[in-house]
């Protein structure tokens, strides 16, 4: 779903390119004509004063005529230069704007009420937090957050965002999913946590660090707003891979914490990028993937038929094309399956070296949950069936499915609930 809307957006931005090329050609054409004209003008300019330059009145005439032109030219040039400098200055002076103090995560008012696509209730969650996840069912980042919430057994509501109308996120400036809205039993504050990795880091810090509440923990993740070289506004969340333990967590070595961080980053920077080119490898695979998204996302229930068909057909066609670009951008093998197998094997090799059931030992840690979460996004696609056939992922993957379903980490949440 997510991919469909990004698809349409990306298609539009691609569609703009030929136009901009066209405009450039017209511009070049005009310029050529212009250059030719000004060249003639220059010749006249050069010729007139000097060839007829003997007469003073002719000189005055020339200055009157061309001096004005020169003045206007300088004026326009100075104005254009100043404007350009101003725009440039704006670009380089906006990179860092730091609201900090966690203010960027506080909502001034409660978002509108939407009917949840489903409500997850786990009796062991006694934290009293009211968590709402805004998501696309098959977005890998959303799947990662769900894997985390389900493993720990948090209670939460799911709001399925319509990627065509995005009507459920009109009230926020944040343009992506997933994000969480959290309400607290003992405070009026309402928080909006943005970015899958930051969400997981904040909640995990909250579970481990009983001296801090979520409102104060978010202050450790200040955002930096900047404008990139293409003029796009971007947000960088500082420390998003770091957990705010307060003190060194018992039973964990420093190396083990660093490793966990490394894998979480690998998931965001590497693993996630092999998914799209693989699930949209051929037109029929792209179509099959979208049909599966429609099924697990319950689109038939949630969206109008025309919306669903639009997303499935247009989305599949667009993503097939975009998949090819992503393949180039992320320098995947010609046969993108090879890249998928390779990355999965990188993970499996590390797991084998560790010698335990999960990367976290007997219980999954955040690396396990992140790898597992993004893989569940493509679980029903041909690509993942191929991965299961051609690598040894199944054993670990099935163990993860089981432990997430059983809320294997629920004790931590209930302990946190009783200490609140
Ligand atoms: N770094 C973000 C990435 C989130 C992201 O890129 N989400 C995509 C969906 S998979 C999105 O919302 N794109 C904009 C859109 O579809 O409108 C995170 O980890 O949460």
UniProtKB/TrEMBL annotation:
Belongs to the GST superfamily. This is Glutaredoxin domain-containing protein. The lineage of its organism: Eukaryota, Metazoa, Ecdysozoa, Arthropoda, Crustacea. One of its GO terms (molecular function) is prostaglandin-E synthase activity. PROSITE patterns: GLUTAREDOXIN_1, GLUTAREDOXIN_2. GO terms for cellular component: mitochondrion. Keywords: Lipid metabolism, Membrane, Transmembrane, Transmembrane helix. One of its GO terms (biological process) is lipid metabolic process.
């Amino acid at each position: 779903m997510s991919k469909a809307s990004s698809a349409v957006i990306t298609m539009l931005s691609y569609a703009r390119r030929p136009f901009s090329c066209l405009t450039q050609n017209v511009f070049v054409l005009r310029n050529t004509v212009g250059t030719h004209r000004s060249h003639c003008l220059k010749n006249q300019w050069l010729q007139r004063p000097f060839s007829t330059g003997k007469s003073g009145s002719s000189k005055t005439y020339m200055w009157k005529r061309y001096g004005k032109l020169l003045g206007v030219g300088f004026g326009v040039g100075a104005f254009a230069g100043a404007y350009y400098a101003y725009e440039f200055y704006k670009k380089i002076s906006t990179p860092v704007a730091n609201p900090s103090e966690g203010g960027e995560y506080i909502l001034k008012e409660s978002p509108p009420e939407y009917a949840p696509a489903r409500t997850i209730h786990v009796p062991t969650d006694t934290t009293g937090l009211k968590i709402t996840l805004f998501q696309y069912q098959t977005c890998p980042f959303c799947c990662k957050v769900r894997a985390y919430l389900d493993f720990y057994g948090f209670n939460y509501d799911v709001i399925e965002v319509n990627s065509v109308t995005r009507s459920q996120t009109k009230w926020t400036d944040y343009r992506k999913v997933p994000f969480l809205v959290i309400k607290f039993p003992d405070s009026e504050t309402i928080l909006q946590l943005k970015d899958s990795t930051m969400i997981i880091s904040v909640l995990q810090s909250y579970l481990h660090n009983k001296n801090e509440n979520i409102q104060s923990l978010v202050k450790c993740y200040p955002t930096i707003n900047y404008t990139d070289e293409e003029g796009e506004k971007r947000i960088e969340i500082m420390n998003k891979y770091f957990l705010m333990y307060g003190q060194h967590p018992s039973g964990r070595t420093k190396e083990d914490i660093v490793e966990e961080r490394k894998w979480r980053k690998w998931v965001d920077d590497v693993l996630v990028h092999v998914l799209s080119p693989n699930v949209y490898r051929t037109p029929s695979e792209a179509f099959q993937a979208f049909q599966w998204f429609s099924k697990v996302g319950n689109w038939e229930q949630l969206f109008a038929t025309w919306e669903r068909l639009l997303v499935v057909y247009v989305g599949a066609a667009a993503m097939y094309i975009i998949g090819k670009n992503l393949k180039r951008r992320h320098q995947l093998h010609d046969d993108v399956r090879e890249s998928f197998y390779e990355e999965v094997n990188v993970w499996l090799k590390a797991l084998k070296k560790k010698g335990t059931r999960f990367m976290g030992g007997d219980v999954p840690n955040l690396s396990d949950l992140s790898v597992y979460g993004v893989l569940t996004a493509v679980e029903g696609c041909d690509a993942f069936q191929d991965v299961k056939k051609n690598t040894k992922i199944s054993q670990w993957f099935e163990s993860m499915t089981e432990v997430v379903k059983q809320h294997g980490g629920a004790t931590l949440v209930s302990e946190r609930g009783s200490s609140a």
